[in-house]
Amino acid sequence: MQRHAGWETALHDYLAALSGAVFVWGRLDCALFAAGAVEAMTGVDPAADFRGRYSTPNGAVRALRRYGAGTLEATIAARFGEIRTAFARRGDLVLVDGMVGVCVGADAVFIGETDGEAGLVRFPRTSWQKAWAVG
């Protein structure tokens, strides 16, 4: 999987379109949000096997066991090469407290809510626990 020409603009447009978006299991949860970013940059949807197969937290766990590598972290690790968080670059995937997000520089963005406002939530690099290279 490689990033295509124009991936930076595609990632920007994808993230901008999600300003104010609401977290919904099986439609726009952290895994599908991150997979959408990967698809925007590469044209490949790493979550194609999961889309439409769950709509609850328990359903997500079952889908990861059935179609993935058992857990979110293991499933990501099976599809992307792990890198040190210090080496993550824009567009790479990062893990914070069991959630997957997208590196945008010194921060990573995740789908969620801050102060009652739905949309993209930022976490600084110092809070990242793992990172995986995309392309």
Could you please describe the fold and organization of this structure?
The structure is a single chain. This protein is α+β, with helices and mostly antiparallel strands and 135 residues long. It has a single domain, classed as endopeptidase fold (from Nostoc punctiforme) (Alpha-Beta Complex), CATH 3.90.1720. It is built from four helices and six strands. Strands 1-6-2-3-4-5 form a six-stranded antiparallel beta sheet, covered by helices on one side. The chain is globular and about 35 Å long.
Descriptive terms for the model:
single chain, 135 residues, alpha+beta, 6 strands, 24% strand, globular
Using the alpha-carbon principal axes, give the shape.
globular
CATH architecture heading: Alpha-Beta Complex
User: Percent of residues in helical segments?
Assistant: 25-40%
Q: Which structural category fits the helices and strands?
A: alpha+beta
Let me know the number of strands: 6
Mean pLDDT: 96
Question: Biggest sheet, strands in spatial order?
Answer: 1-6-2-3-4-5
Tally the helices: what do you get?
A: 4
Q: What is the straight-line distance between the termini?
A: 5 Å
- Helix-strand pattern: HHHHEEEEEE
Largest β sheet strand count, sense and barrel closure: 6 strands, antiparallel
> Can you tell me the number of structural domains?
1
